[in-house]
């Protein structure tokens, strides 16, 4: 086996030093009654070329966005990834290192994550950002737990227009801890009902996604005002990071904690993971943040360097009193996002967001012109809800066979929206692709 | 090779922070011409966009290339970080994960277009079941700690379903910090189980602590001292006898593949660390992947969606009323699963067993050759790792930290230090199976040389490292006046 370097001679020499006859003798440290009698019933080792053929065949059954025209976002977005990004990311000094426990030989990871944290604070307009979480749903759940710790109230409000899967994860995380999750309904404008939050009492926080699951931009400042008057915290979440190239950032709207998905920042969709959880807060909440943080310091010669810091919040020091059980972050994905943001730059980021917006608005207008109903009239970014004609399921399947995926049916998530579809357009779809979709759906 | 010193000085280039370079108007991204009309964004919600530096592609490439040279990875050299299983990460697995059919696919496409990914997940679950004898697996948790949380949530749901309220959980002294922290998220108060003079748990201690208010026990086996918990079967019986369940922390599974099946020794639920045992890159701290396996007792509580096979088709099924729910937005770290699956197929069943055999051989060899030089906390046949301490070097004013830092000058990544907590000044060495005998010998000789230096010229250790990009860093001031962004 090419990953196991020992020759029979090596093994013999080592066993002699240890003073046993066989390697299996070392396993006599395990009681006989605990040891397996049967060999593992697993496939035989495959050669590299057989393995490649096997994997190619599995991958060939899939529908990659390079071949299909996929008009779905809903938490996973198809954006162009510059070749330089995966190339740099494959530097094995980054990928095969672990947590920077020894900062002197981990400055690459540490500076990279410090820059990531900085760019996330600038993207979201917040004071502090963590070294990342698993994904948007877990980051949002942790944000709500932060609010519960801070306010000591055991009830949170979550917009019904937060991603349906985020809400499911929130229930998984908060339910057993005895925290009540109240859903805030939405109105006819496709926005979270502000008045409903106004009528709530004793809530630790309200979480509002913007752009929300319908792609509609929310008025975060108004929610912040209402919840602050009730001594609760304002949490904003998001799934499409590119939006912040055009949309007013959460920090400028009085938001206390922001949690979202960073997959859009140059990370492959990869069937849903690994992605990237972004978590940022105001300075006042810094010590409540879960997970890793990188900070600056100096070495013995006074030279600038970076270390993991504020570890007193974390499980390896505080054990059961930690702010979270989280140990690792999605470090390489954070670095991936940093490389992507650095490649775009501020000017490029704004322009890319504008192109995305132009395209989505083009499709929206073309569909409207063709008589398709746009469900919500409010301002959207990249995604919007449409009502396709009765019997559209057949068209959907026909389009699928032509390698076009005509949006996400919403009935599964919002029964009142059966027959409605969530459409997404990014810079990767051309005018021709969109014209074709319009032609097919109205044919 | 004897006496070969791999730590040397090379040309290290300085590199500023991203925003200390660049010029407004540059871009490292191929922005397309827009083929549709410009549409202004709603003025009420429009912002200014992020204040990022503008850099050319070359600047970005040099920036990260220089940063990478300040890092030490498994591809750089031996990385014997105890309990982290820093084995070689095969490159063919990277090829598989980057196939467009795996990397460039949306998670919400109709199932008919996802059959390859679902089959891969279904088969990977099957492999993990076979390795452990467990009945069902979820691949959803994102990391080991996340798997622990899933497992504890399932234990919690199980007791609740039976109408029982349990408030405590047993956690041995040797446990990873994530164990008590995961328990706390379900409101469980951790109760410490001491280790005996042999470094393992006693049945009597567990019996004395286990009661009907205790949800179960979290066991790492082999434990973090690298020792097999010999009393595990009896301990499981005691816990089961009081209606509790046994959580197995699979962090150290690399020691026992093909030798022990967790289900056979009484474990009810356990997690895997695909990034440890199954050789996926640690990524500077993630992404990992922490699948969880359960016996029949806990199967109804597994997270959703679950992957199922009906006739020749694979489906994502959510209809499980007793499920703890969803742990992540989608199905877990699929890209990591692809690598682990590819690794298992490369190794085969026999190869995996051999990997464990060599991991244990290497650890025992190191233990044997170093036990005269360093204080060995528990002198027994170890599994995949061994734990020394600085007790013999302390009289010279030299600590574990100093020895670890000196190893850096010699070109090795230091072992895990100051963990497990039951060994003061611990030096926890896990060589893994992928190191050559020459590298292991070189590592041993280096540690012996450092022990001599500790006695004769301790200042060499106190000043170490001297050959890295930076010298020792002031962690106290970093925490006192946190500067977390620029």
Helix content of chain B: 25-40%
Broad shape of chain A: globular
Enter the CATH topology name of the largest domain in chain A. Aspartate Aminotransferase, domain 2
CATH superfamily of the largest domain in chain A: Type I PLP-dependent aspartate aminotransferase-like (Major domain)
How many helical elements of chain A? 14
| Strand content range of chain A | 5-15%
Structure, described:
The complex is a heterodimer of chains A (443) and B (486). Chain A has 443 residues and is an alpha/beta fold. Chain A has 2 domains: 69-81 and 345-441, Aspartate Aminotransferase, domain 1 (Alpha-Beta Complex), CATH 3.90.1150; 84-340, Aspartate Aminotransferase, domain 2. Chain A has 14 helices and 15 strands. Chain A has helices spanning 8-18, 23-26, 48-59, 84-89, 92-95, 107-124, 136-151, 164-174, 194-198, 220-229, 315-318, 331-369, 392-401, 431-441; strands at 69-70, 128-129, 155-159, 180-184, 205-209, 233-238, 257-261, 277-281, 294-298, 304-308, 373-374, 383-387, 404-405, 408-409, 420-424. In chain A, the strands form 4 sheets. In chain A, strands 2-8-7-6-5-3-4 form a 7-stranded mixed sheet, sandwiched between helices. A 4-stranded antiparallel sheet of chain A has the order 11-12-15-14, covered by helices on one side. A two-stranded parallel sheet of chain A has the order 1-13. In chain A, α6 (107-124) runs parallel beside α12, α7 (136-151) crosses α8 (164-174) and α12 (331-369) crosses α14 (431-441). Chain A is globular. Chain B folds into 2 domains: 94-346, 3-Layer(aba) Sandwich (Aspartate Aminotransferase, domain 2); 357-475, Aspartate Aminotransferase, domain 1 (Alpha-Beta Complex). Chain B is built from 14 helices and 13 strands. Chain B has helices at residues 57-68, 91-97, 100-103, 115-132, 144-161, 178-185, 203-209, 232-241, 274-277, 334-370, 400-409, 437-456, 458-462, 475-480, and strands at 136-138, 168-172, 189-193, 214-220, 245-249, 269-271, 292-294, 306-310, 313-317, 375-376, 386-389, 416-417, 426-429. In chain B, the strands form 3 sheets. A 7-stranded mixed sheet of chain B has the order 1-7-6-5-4-2-3, with helices on both faces. In chain B, strands 10-11-13-12 form a 4-stranded antiparallel sheet. In chain B, strands 8-9 form a two-stranded antiparallel sheet. In chain B, α2 (91-97) packs antiparallel against α10 (334-370). Chain B is globular. Chain B starts with 56 loop residues before the first helix and ends in a 6-residue tail after the last helix. In chain B, 62% of the residues are buried. At the A-B interface, α1, α2, α3, α4 and α5 of A face α1, α2, α3, α4 and α5 of B.
């Amino acid at each position: 086996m090419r990953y196991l370097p020992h020759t029979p001679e090596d093994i013999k020499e080592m066993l002699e030093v240890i003073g046993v006859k066989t390697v299996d003798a070392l396993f006599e440290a395990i009681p006989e009654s605990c040891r397996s009698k049967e060999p593992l019933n697993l496939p035989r080792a495959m050669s590299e070329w057989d393995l490649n053929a096997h994997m190619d065949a599995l991958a060939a059954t899939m529908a990659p966005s390079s071949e299909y025209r996929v008009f779905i976002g809903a938490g996973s977005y198809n954006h162009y990834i510059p070749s330089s990004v995966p190339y740099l990311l494959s530097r094995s000094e980054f990928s095969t290192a672990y947590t920077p426990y020894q900062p002197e030989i981990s400055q690459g990871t540490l500076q990279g994550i410090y820059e990531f944290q900085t760019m996330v604070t600038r993207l979201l307009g917040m004071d502090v950002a963590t070294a990342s979480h698993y994904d948007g749903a877990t980051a949002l759940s942790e944000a709500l737990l932060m609010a519960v710790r801070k306010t000591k109230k055991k009830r949170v409000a979550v917009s019904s227009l937060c991603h349906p899967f985020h809400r499911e994860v929130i229930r998984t995380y908060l339910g057993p801890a005895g925290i009540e999750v109240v859903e805030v309904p939405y109105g006819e404008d496709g926005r979270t009902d502000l008045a409903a939050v106004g009528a709530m009492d004793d809530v630790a926080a309200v979480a509002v996604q913007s752009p929300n699951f319908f792609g509609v931009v929310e008025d975060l400042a108004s929610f912040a005002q209402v919840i602050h008057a009730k001594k609760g915290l304002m949490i904003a979440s998001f799934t499409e990071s590119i939006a912040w190239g055009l949309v007013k950032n959460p920090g400028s709207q009085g938001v206390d904690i922001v949690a979202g998905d960073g997959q859009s920042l140059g990370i492959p969709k990869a069937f849903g993971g690994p992605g990237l959880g972004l978590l940022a807060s105001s300075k006042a909440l810094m010590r409540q943040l879960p997970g890793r943080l990188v900070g600056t310091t100096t070495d013995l010669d006074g030279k600038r360097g970076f270390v993991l810091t504020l570890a007193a919040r974390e499980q390896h020091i505080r054990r059961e009193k930690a702010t979270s059980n989280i140990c690792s972050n999605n470090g390489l994905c954070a670095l991936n996002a940093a490389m992507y943001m650095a490649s775009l730059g501020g000017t490029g980021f704004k322009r890319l967001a504008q192109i995305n917006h132009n395209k989505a608005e083009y499709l929206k207008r073309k569909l409207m012109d063709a008589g398709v109903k746009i469900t919500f009239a409010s301002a959207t970014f990249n995604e919007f809800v449409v009502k396709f004609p009765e019997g559209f399921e057949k068209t959907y399947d026909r389009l699928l066979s032509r390698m076009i995926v005509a949006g996400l049916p919403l009935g599964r998530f919002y029964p009142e929206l059966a027959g409605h579809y969530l459409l997404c357009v990014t810079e990767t779809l051309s005018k021709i692709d969109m014209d074709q979709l319009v032609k097919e759906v109205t044919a | 090779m004897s006496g070969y010193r791999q730590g040397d000085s090379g040309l290290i280039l300085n590199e500023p922070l991203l925003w200390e370079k660049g010029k407004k108007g540059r871009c490292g991204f191929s922005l397309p011409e827009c083929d549709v009309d410009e549409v202004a964004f709603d003025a009420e919600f429009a912002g200014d966009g992020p204040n990022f530096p503008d850099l050319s592609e070359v600047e970005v490439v040099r920036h990260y290339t220089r940063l990478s040279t300040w890092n030490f990875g498994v591809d750089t050299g031996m990385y014997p970080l105890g309990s982290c299983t820093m084995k070689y990460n095969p490159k063919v697995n990277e090829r598989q994960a980057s196939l467009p059919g795996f990397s460039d696919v949306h998670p919400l496409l109709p199932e008919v277009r996802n059959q390859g990914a679902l089959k891969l997940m279904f088969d990977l679950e099957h492999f993990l079941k076979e390795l452990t004898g467990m009945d069902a697996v979820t691949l959803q948790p994102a990391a080991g700690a996340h798997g622990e949380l899933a497992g504890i949530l399932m234990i919690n749901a199980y007791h609740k379903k039976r109408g029982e309220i349990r408030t405590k959980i047993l956690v041995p002294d040797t446990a990873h910090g994530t164990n008590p922290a995961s328990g706390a998220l379900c409101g469980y108060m951790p109760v410490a189980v001491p280790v005996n003079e042999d470094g393992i748990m006693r049945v009597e201690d567990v019996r004395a602590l286990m009661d009907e208010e205790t949800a179960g026990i979290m066991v790492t086996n082999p434990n973090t001292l690298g020792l097999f918990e010999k009393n595990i079967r009896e301990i499981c019986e005691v816990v089961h006898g009081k209606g509790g369940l046994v959580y197995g922390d699979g962090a150290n599974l690399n020691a026992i593949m093909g030798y022990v099946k967790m289900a056979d020794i009484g474990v009810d639920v356990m997690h895997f660390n695909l990034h440890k045992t199954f050789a996926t890159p640690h990524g500077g701290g993630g992404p990992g992947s922490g699948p969880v396996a359960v016996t029949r007792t806990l199967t109804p509580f597994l997270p959703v969606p679950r992957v199922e096979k009906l006739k020749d088709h694979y489906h994502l099924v959510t209809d499980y009323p007793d499920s703890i729910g969803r742990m992540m937005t989608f199905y877990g770290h699929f890209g990591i699963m692809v690598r682990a699956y590819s690794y298992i197929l490369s190794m085969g069943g026999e190869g995996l067993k051999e990997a464990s055999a060599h991991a244990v051989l290497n650890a025992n060899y190191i233990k044997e050759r170093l036990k005269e030089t360093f204080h060995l906390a528990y002198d027994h046949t170890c599994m995949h790792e061994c734990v020394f301490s600085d007790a013999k070097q302390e009289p010279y004013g030299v600590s574990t930290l100093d020895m670890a830092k000196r190893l850096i000058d010699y070109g090795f990544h230091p072992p895990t230090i100051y963990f497990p907590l039951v060994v003061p000044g611990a030096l926890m060495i896990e060589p893994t199976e992928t190191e050559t005998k020459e590298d292991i010998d070189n590592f041993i000789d280096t540690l012996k040389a450092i022990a001599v230096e500790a006695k004769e010229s301790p200042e060499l250790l106190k000043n170490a490292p001297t050959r890295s990009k930076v010298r020792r860093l002031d962690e106290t001031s970093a925490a006192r006046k946190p500067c977390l962004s620029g």
